[in-house]
Every structure is written in C-alpha cells, then in structure tokens.
Amino acid sequence: xxxxxxxxxxxxxxxxxxxxxxxxxxxxxxxxxxxxxxxxxxxxxxxxxxxxxxxxxxxxxxxxxxxxxxxxxxxxxxxxxxxxxxxxxxxxxxxxxxxxxxxxxxxxxxxxxxxxxxxxxxxxxxxxxxxxxxxxxxxxxxxxxxxxxxxxxxxxxxxxxxxxxxxxxxxxxxxxxxxxxxxxxxxxxxxxxxxxxxxxxxxxxxxxxxxxxxxxxxxxxxxxxxxxxxxxxxxxxxxxxxxxxxxxxxx
Length: 251
Ligand code: MG
Description:
Monomer. By secondary structure, this protein is of the alpha+beta class.
C-alpha cells in the first residue's frame, strides 16, 4: 500500500522531519574528541522531547536508545554507549521523530576533528549521492531512477553501495512501502506519484558493499572493516519536483 498525502499531512510530516534536522544540527555542535555516543543520545532525547516530539527509534523493535550513532566501519543501527569519539573518526547519526502521529527520519555523517582525505571524500560523495537521488524523486519517474542515480554517482568515485539496507516510504509509520534501494537499473520499479513521501538514504562503503551484523543483534558493520557513511532525508514528491522536508537551514 502506497500512501498519497494531502498537503496538511505533508506539513505534519515536515514538522516531525524538521525537528529531526534541528536535532542533527544541535548534535553536530557537540561532536568532538572525548564525547561518548551515550552523551549524544541523551542530548538528542532531551532536545526532541523538549520540543514536543518523541524519539521514534526508542523502543522500536526493542531498540534501547533515541539515536543510532555509527562510527567508522559501523554502517547503521549502532547502539549508543561508552565509546568516546576520537580525532579522525567519522560518525553517522540517524534520528527519527514522531510528532502528532507523523514521522520524520534523517541521517548525517560528521567528521570528528580532522579526518583523512579518503574519509572526507567518502562523506562528500555519499552526500552528493543523496542529492542525486533526491533530484530523481519526481512524479512520473520510477523508484529505479532514484536507485540508479545514487549507485552511479557512488561507483563512479570508486566506492560501493550497501545492498541489504534500503530507504522507505514514511508518514503514519516510520517504515512504509515502497522500498527505495540504493542500487539498480533506471526506469524500473513502482512509478512515483505526487504526494508520496520517501526516506532516501544511501549507505556507502569505502571498500566492498558487504555488511554483517554484530553479536549485539543491531550494529551493522562493513565486512572488510572499511569506513562507511550514511546520509538521509525525508522527501515529498510534489508536482513541481522533490521537496526536502527534513531541512533546517542547509542541514
Ligand atoms: Mg530511514
């Protein structure tokens, strides 16, 4: 079932998604060597609740925290804890908010202090790949157009796209149909319609595309130990083109 949202519903999703973006922006100012991922989690939960939202990840299928802070070779779904950030790390932070019955979801990968040139390039290429995917989120196009734009951008820069995790529809639930893969041929898959809202989220590895899940049952890491980056936006498909809902002054 694919939902087409009325304007009021899109505005409700925007409220949740904008709080996600503001949370990411606030977290970005706290990222420096010595901070623990649990510190960031506490900050995020307080920030979201003070503004009338609910951290959507907390309790989701038993997940114990409000954010997923994935460091270096961790791809997504890492659990906050005592790990301290170190100079040269990269940290992808995924945040979800429910507000007034609607959901927003976004992620951003931050450098911790100065990072290697390779890590900097991985961040830039992943962010550009998200932008290329969003540019295809137009009524009349197909899901595969988004997927293909992301994959071709990533692979043209020598990086690889994670296959086993995908973007998704979002609205009344955090994960709705359709799935939005980050790879695949263009002009395939469901046709996009105005009023659809999608979470588009490339996960890009510096090495090979394979991932494994750690024994904690949550943390997804690259199989070869290479770095991984993740950027995500909640995007509405409008008649005039894509509209990023998880935007807070350029975050
Ligand atoms: Mg998502």
